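Researcher: Next sequence.
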Amino acid sequence: MKTWRRRSEYSEPIPVDMIYEILLSLPAKSIARFRSVSKLWCSILGRTDFTELFLTKSSCRPQLLLSCVKDNELFFFSTPQTNCENWFPVVAADYHMKLRCDEFLQIFNPISGLVCFKDKRGRKNVTVICNPSTGQSFTLPKMKTRRRVALSSYLGYDPIEKQFKVLAMTFPSGSDDGISEEHQVLTLGGTGSWRMIQCCIPHCPGWKVICINGVLY
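Model: Next structure:
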């Protein structure tokens, strides 16, 4: 009498390294979609080492990110970056996503694929973080302040803790010197709440910023 066993009993699990190699060849939109397959896939794709490998491989294929605003909508496109010095080849731009903007204010330099921009909704200015590659976006939570102030917020990346963070600086509305009063930080993927930090150095928030090795200039 023959006894039949399920095929799964004879199969061996796929090594994590091989899973990484397969997933690293996929576009970012597929990676974001596969996170909802199961808890196991979500944990694998959310690991820090996988994120670093994906960003390293993506940096070998540099892309130029293009954005434009039309009819209260913010569009994102990308095109391969070339090393041509004397001529510009004609390449088609890939469309990624669009976002509704009530009153678009400004956009900051992208950091590792994430883009931060400001929008005016009603009487309030809001800050939005989006990932054009995956099509995901979210609005930052409201920050509590001691009084009515103006607000400037900036996106940065902490290479030590390997986390994206937003620095918010407040200063009195209509102030002549524009020196910031409060400094708060929000860690993306964290508790979702702002935390106050102490800074004894006076700052005048601007809108032309760049993040280099975890430092905002």
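Model: The longest strand covers residues 149-158. Residues 48-59 form the longest helix (12 residues).
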